[in-house]
Amino acid sequence: MTDFKKMMAENFGENLTGAQLWALTKFAKNVRLRCRNNTAFNNEMNRTFPHARFRTVNKQRPSRLVPGTMETYPGLEISINNVPVTSQGAEDTE
To answer: Does some domain include residue 47?
Structure first.
């Protein structure tokens, strides 16, 4: 099972209803059509989910090109009611 399929199964269950599938499909199509970059994605998500805040932040990871150094890349930060949410979906408590 791919990471995406595993995440979907863990968060939505194995058997989505027809209405849920249509809603997900329409949402995905809307995002695909309207969001051509990170800023557009964040703006669309902030409009769609007003209780959450989506923003681009700088993140670091070990460089693949120069061993022993770090490289910076644009990452996504999500907060719900000003509480950061990790990539696993659990709200950070620290």
So the answer is: yes
Please give the Cα distance from 19 to 21 (Å, whole number): 5
Residue 68 is given by DSSP the state: T
Tokens of residue 89, six digits: 């979906």
| 36: phi then psi, degrees, rounded to nearest 5 | -100, -5
Q: Does residue 77 sit within a domain? A: yes
Question: CB-based contacts of 24: which residues, under 8 Å, 6+ apart?
Answer: 16
Q: pTM of the entire structure? A: 0.70
Q: Which of 34, 76, 36 is nearest to 55 (CA)?
A: 76
Count structural domains, the chain: 1
Q: Structure tokens of 43?
A: 């703006």
- Give 42's contacts (C-beta < 8 A, 6+ positions apart): 54, 55, 56, 76
pLDDT tens digits for range 23-60: 989 999 999 998 999 999 999 999 999 999 999 999 99
Q: Is residue 78 part of a domain?
A: yes
Domain assignment present for residue 91? The answer is no
